[in-house]
Amino acid sequence: MRTSIFFLMTIILLASCSESNSSNTMEMAAKTYPTVGSIEVLDEGLSKIISSDAPIEILAEGFSWSEGPVWVKALNSVLFTDVPENKIWRWSEKDSLQLYLEPSGYLGSTKGGQGANGLWIDSEGKLVMCQHGERQIAYMDAPLDAPAPKFVSLASQYKGKRFSSPNDLVIDKKGNIYFTDPPYGLPKDVEQEIPFQGVFRKNIDGSIDLLVDSLSRPNGVALSPDEKTMYIAVSDGQKAHLLAYDIQEDGTVTNGRILCDTTPEVGMEGRKGVPDGLVVHSNGTIFTTGPGGIWVVAPDGKVLGKILTTQSTANCTLDADEKMLYMTAHMYLMRVPLL
Question: pLDDT tens digits for 30-83?
C-alpha cells in the first residue's frame, strides 16, 4: 500500500513539474516584442539572407547611445554598451535586460567620462573592450558570469603617445587585435596626442603597428571570413564609405578602396545615421550600419538591401548560429531574424 502511494505521489509530482516546464516554455515562445521599420529589397540575392517581411523587434529601450553589441555564447546573451552612461548591459530571451557592468570604460572618480564602446570575446573567453574614458584597449579580468570592474590594459599608447579614444575592434584567429582610434570619446578639453585618426593592429608579440593614418572618422572594423580583407566603416558624412583593404602576409594592408559609398543618402529624410559598426557573416555578407539602418552588402560591394530601423543605428552582431542579427540603434536594442 505504501509503495502504491509512493508511486502515485511521484507521478503527481512529475506531472506537476512537466506542466510547469511546459508552461514556462510556452510563455517564452509566446513572448512578443514591438516592431518597427521595414526591409528594403534592392537585389534578389537578399532573399537568401533575410525575408522581405522579417520583423524588426525592439527588445529593450531607454539608453543614451547603445553601441558595441557582441554575442556571448557562454551566457547565451548579447552584451552591449551605453557609452555616455559608462555601462554594459546584458540581454537574453530568458532573463531580458540586466545591468552587466558599471563602470565600463571610464574609471575616474568624477562623472562625465565616456564608457566602453566596441566589445569582443577573445579565444580564451575574456571580454575585450574599447575603453573611451581610459583611452585604451583592455580586457576584463573576471569570469563572464561574475563580472567585476577590474581591467588589464592591452594597448594604450603608440610610440609614447596616448590613443585618443579606441572605438571598435576585431580579433583575428591568431590573436592580433585590429582597432580604430577616432576622437569621439575624447573630452574637448583634453589634447589629442596622436595627430591623426588611425587604424592600428596590436600584434600577438605585444607590438603595435599603424595600418592606416589617412582617414577622417574611421569607426567600425571587421575582417572577411578568410581574414584576407579588412573592412573599415567611415563615419565622415562627406565621405560616408565602407572601405576594404587587402591584408598582406606581414600584417600590413594595401589596395585601400571604396567597397560601398553611402554618402548620397546621408541626411535624406527618414535615413538617419552614417556608417558606424559592422559585422561579417560566415558566408562573406557584410552587415554595415549606414543611412537608414543596416545595409546588407555582398563581398563584391553590391548592396542587396537595407534593414530600415528608423533610427541612427550604431552597430550590429550575429548570434552563434547566425539566425539573428542584433542591432544597437540610438536608444534601442533591436533584432531581426535571418534565413
Answer: 589 999 999 999 999 999 999 999 999 999 999 999 999 999 999 999 999 999
What count of other Cβ atoms lies within 10 Å of the Cβ of residue 207?
A: 9
Vertex 213, ends 104 and 69: CA angle to 5°?
A: 30
- The one-letter amino acid at 243: L
Indicate the domain borders of the chain.
34-337
Using CA atoms, how far apart are residues 146 and 90, in angstroms rounded to an integer? 12
What is the mean pLDDT of the segment spanning 276-287?
Answer: 98
- Residue 184 buriedness (CB in 10 A; 0-12 / 13-18 / 19+): middle
Q: Is the domain covering 34-337 a CATH 2.120.10.30 domain?
A: yes
Per-residue cell: 109: 572618480
Letter for the amino acid at 73? K
| Distance (Å, whole) CA 82 – CA 332 | 10
- pLDDT at position 5 is 41
Please provide the DSSP assignment of 195-234 as one string.
SSEEEEEE-TTS-EEEEEEEESSEEEEEE-TTS-EEEEEE
The whole-model pTM stands at 0.90
Kindly compute the dihedral angle of the four CA atoms of residues 144, 134, 132, 128, in this order, to the nearest 10 degrees. -30
Phi and psi for 287 in degrees, rounded to 5?
-105, 105
Residue 30 is predicted with a pLDDT of 58
